[in-house]
Each structure stands twice: as C-alpha cells, then as structure tokens.
From TrEMBL, chain A:
The gene is NCS6. It comes from the Eukaryota. The keyword rRNA-binding does not apply. Its main location: cytoplasm. Residues 331-355 are annotated as: Disordered. Belongs to the TtcA family. CTU1/NCS6/ATPBD3 subfamily. This is Cytoplasmic tRNA 2-thiolation protein 1.
TrEMBL record, chain B:
Pathway: tRNA modification; 5-methoxycarbonylmethyl-2-thiouridine-tRNA biosynthesis. This is Ubiquitin-related modifier 1 homolog. There is a cross-link at residue 99 (Glycyl lysine isopeptide (Gly-Lys) (interchain with K-? in acceptor proteins)). C-terminal thiocarboxylation occurs in 2 steps, it is first acyl-adenylated (-COAMP) via the hesA/moeB/thiF part of the MOCS3/UBA4 homolog, then thiocarboxylated (-COSH) via the rhodanese domain of the MOCS3/UBA4 homolog. The lineage of its organism: Eukaryota, Viridiplantae, Streptophyta, Embryophyta, Tracheophyta. Acts as a sulfur carrier required for 2-thiolation of mcm(5)S(2)U at tRNA wobble positions of cytosolic tRNA(Lys), tRNA(Glu) and tRNA(Gln). Serves as sulfur donor in tRNA 2-thiolation reaction by being thiocarboxylated (-COSH) at its C-terminus by MOCS3. The sulfur is then transferred to tRNA to form 2-thiolation of mcm(5)S(2)U. Also acts as a ubiquitin-like protein (UBL) that is covalently conjugated via an isopeptide bond to lysine residues of target proteins.
Length: 355, 99
C-alpha cells in the first residue's frame, strides 16, 4: 500500500504507448513518456527497421562487432544478438576488440569484453597495436606528447579493425557509433573544413570499395537511450574516459552538442540530416582514392596515413603527418631534407587548439 | 532526509570511487520540502571531492549526465523541481565516455 501511494505522486505519468504502466523515461527523439517494457520494444524495433531499410546485412554473412567493452558496443552486441535470433537474420556474429596499449584504460575494458564473450556467447578476437605496429599508445604518447593522440589512435584503430576483420574472415564490421557521435563528427568536419570527410561521415555503410565494409546500426539511436537501455537491462559495460581524451578537439563539439540537446533534443538528428543532404560544389577539388605504395591499404595519398604516422614515430619525427599539407607525399619531403624539421601550420604557437 | 545516491558511468571517480552513498540530507532553512536543486548543491558540497565541473554546470548537472529518481527519468518529474521523499533512490549516470 505504501509503495503504491509513493509511486502515485501527483505528476506521475503513464506510458503513452501502453497507457498502463508508469512512464520511466522521456525519449529525446520524440519527447514521449514511455515505460520500460515499451521502451525496450520500441528501441529494438527501431534498430531492426534501420537494419532492414538500409539493407545492412545479408543472410549467411559473418559480422564482426567492434567491441571496446563500452556502453555502445556492449549494447550493440546484445541487441544484434537478440535481433539476429528474433528475426532470423542468419548472421554469424563475432566480437572484435582492439588493444591500443593504454594502461589503466584498455586493460580494464578488455576484461569487460571477455565477460561479454561469455555473457552473449559470441567468439572474441583481440588485435593489438603492439603486434600490428610495434608501438602501444602509451609509447606513442611518450614520444609525441599529449597533443594529437586521437589522430594516431584513430588512424591505427581503423586499420587494426580491418586487419582483425580479415583474420576473422568476416564480411562486414559493425560499430556502435550513435547519433550523438555522428552529429559531433559532422560539426567537427565543418569546423575543420574537411569536405572529403564531411561528404562521407553520415553514410551508414562505409568502405564498400575498401577491404571490409562497415556499418553503424546505431546511426539514429540517441546516446541517452543506449545508456538507459543498458541501465534498465543491467548490461555489463566499462565506463571511464580514455586518459588521453581530455585534450581532444572532439570534446568541444561534444560539449556543444550536449548543450544543444538540452534545449532542443531533435537537433542531433537534424544535424545528421543536414550532413546527409550536403552537396559539394562541382568546382571543389576532392581527393581521389588509390592505394598506399607501402602497404596497399586504401589511401588518397601516395602513402596511407598510418604509414606516414608510423614513419614519423620510427624516425623520431612526431609531427610527420599532422596538420595540413603534411607528410611524405608533398613538399614535406624536401623540408625534411632541408633541416630535419617539417613545415607545419601548427608549429606556430596557437593556444591549446591543435588541428 | 535519508536518501540513497548512486553514481555511475565514471562519476564514482569524483566521489572517491564509491558508487553507492547512503546519506542524510537536511532540508534547506525554512523550506518544507527537498528538491533536486537542493540535493545537487548538497552533493556538490559534500560528496564531490574533485573536478566538480564533470558533475555540475551552473545549477544543474553537466549536460550528458542522466538523473533517475526511483528508476524514473527526472525529465518526467520536473528535473530540478523534482521533490524528494524519505528513502528515495537517486541515480546519476554519466554518458560522457567512449562507447
């Protein structure tokens, strides 16, 4: 009796979907008040529809889920497993994890993925930067300092995922990027004038002309809903910020998006829509795609970014490949010959923002 | 007023890595009820031991921190105006980390 009166405080609302149960959350996507059970149903159904409408998978495919042990990839593994069963997608699912060698961050989150392997019954493969490149992120940061860490890590991770996917012989990689992430990326690319990336970053399937295509089933899923889903379902995930991330430029875009969401939650999906509908002026020169001369990976320059960065690390030139007009591909080659240091936009003192 | 406060998503690191806190919060002087606004100020002063800007921004939680009162999104009960009662459970979850 006591419990009843406590929950029926004035202002307690009923779920607008079933009208029976108490509403547990307000969906940012639709501003609807919804109970737990209806939330699970609509959350899972919407993702199922995204998968169908965008033809993300085909029956019989082997799919690697990029798994970091974090909230997005854990929920993705859980939901994909469930939908695969429920709707008979006919997929062979795997967990693929990348060990960047960040002490105190990655070693803990890998423990979570190992638990996920058991909890969800999905076979796990871990690939490490140390094995692939000969460098851990900790070693890289010792060499380059606390700037541009995400540039190195992001570039290496993308290749690492492809290598791992090739080892697993999968047909596609699925990642847990959510609507908030994609909206941030659109903003980041606008702020940097990166037209090439801007034109690609909202695609739900990318890399179809590369080694392994990837897809983002959570493209339209709000981060808040992913966290609420994980919380209510008591899913096991690891949640600490990467120790190198406070210096990342993306943090500014994220802060802005979060403030925006508070005022107008729909803004996140609207930014994605704007990103999807951008058209590049025909007079704009776009980079052409080829392959890296050194490793054969997909690249718009003579050497792919990973090779340029690695060259820099191995030669003790931490700024190689950082900033515009950089790298071994253009006049930088001459600059190295001249004085051992490369010309760069950001060799100027420009506060804490590094592009 | 006795309340149970839980911190998740990495926020526990701001409270000396303790996830669950059983606390006794006094009502503000002259008030007859305790609101989330009051509780936030109390938490800021009494529980957050470092980097308060990760938890609070202005009068409210930092955008990206979810708040649940008795397992219910505080957006449904008026956010800062939500009134709290004896033995309520308040959960703070940060979403601001890698996925």
């Amino acid at each position: 009796m006591e419990a009843d009166t406590k929950h029926k405080k004035p202002g307690t609302r009923l779920c607008c979907a079933c009208n029976q149960r108490r509403a547990a959350l307000k969906r940012p996507k639709t501003l609807e008040q919804i109970c737990r059970e209806c939330f699970y149903a609509v959350f899972e159904e919407e993702i199922h529809q995204v998968i169908l409408e965008n033809k993300l998978f085909k029956p019989g495919e082997r799919i690697a889920i990029g798994a970091s042990g974090g909230k997005d990839s854990t929920v993705l593994a859980y939901v994909l497993s469930e939908l695969n069963r429920r709707h008979n997608y006919g997929l062979d699912l795997f967990l693929l994890s990348v060990d960047e060698g960040i002490t105190g961050y990655r070693d803990d989150s890998l423990e979570t993925v190992k638990r996920n392997e058991l909890q969800y019954g999905l076979p796990l493969k871990i690939v490490s930067y140390k094995d692939l490149y000969g460098w851990t992120m900790d070693e890289i940061v010792k060499m380059i300092g606390l700037k541009n860490n995400c540039t190195f890590c992001g570039v290496f991770r993308r290749q690492a995922l492809d290598r791992g996917a090739a080892l697993l012989k999968v047909d596609k990689v699925a990642t847990g990027h959510n609507a908030d992430d994609i909206a941030e990326t659109v903003l980041l690319n606008i702020l940097r004038g990166d037209i090439a990336r801007l034109s690609r970053c909202t695609s739900i399937i990318t890399g179809e002309d590369g080694p392994i295509p990837r897809c983002k089933p959570f493209k339209y899923t709000y981060e808040k809903e992913i966290v609420m889903y994980a919380y209510f379902k008591k899913l096991d995930y690891f949640s600490t910020e990467c120790i190198y991330s406070p210096n990342a430029y993306r943090g500014f875009a994220r802060e802005f998006i979060k403030d925006l969401e508070r005022i107008r939650p729909r803004a996140i999906l609207d930014i994605i829509k704007s990103g999807e509908d951008f058209r590049i002026a025909t007079s704009t020169k776009m980079p052409e795609q080829g392959t890296c001369e050194r490793c054969g990976y997909i690249s718009s320059q003579k050497w792919c970014k990973a090779c340029v960065l690695l060259e820099g690390l191995n030669r003790g030139l931490p700024k190689l490949g950082i900033g515009r007009n950089q790298g071994l591909n253009s006049d930088a080659k001459e600059d190295i010959k001249k004085d051992g240091r490369t010309k760069s936009i950001e060799s100027k003192q420009c506060g804490s923002l590094e592009f | 007023m006795h309340l149970t406060l839980e911190f998740g998503g990495g926020l526990e690191l701001l409270c000396e890595s303790v996830k669950v806190h059983n606390v006794n919060v006094d009502l503000p002087k002259g008030a007859d009820k305790l609101t989330m606004k009051d509780l936030l100020a109390w938490v800021r002063t009494n529980l957050i031991k470092e980097r308060p800007e990760m938890f609070i921004k202005g009068e409210s939680v930092r955008p990206g921190v979810l708040v649940l009162v008795n397992d219910c999104d505080w957006e449904l009960s008026g956010q800062l105006d939500t009134t709290l009662e004896e033995k309520d459970v308040v959960v703070f979850i940060s979403t601001l980390h890698g996925g």
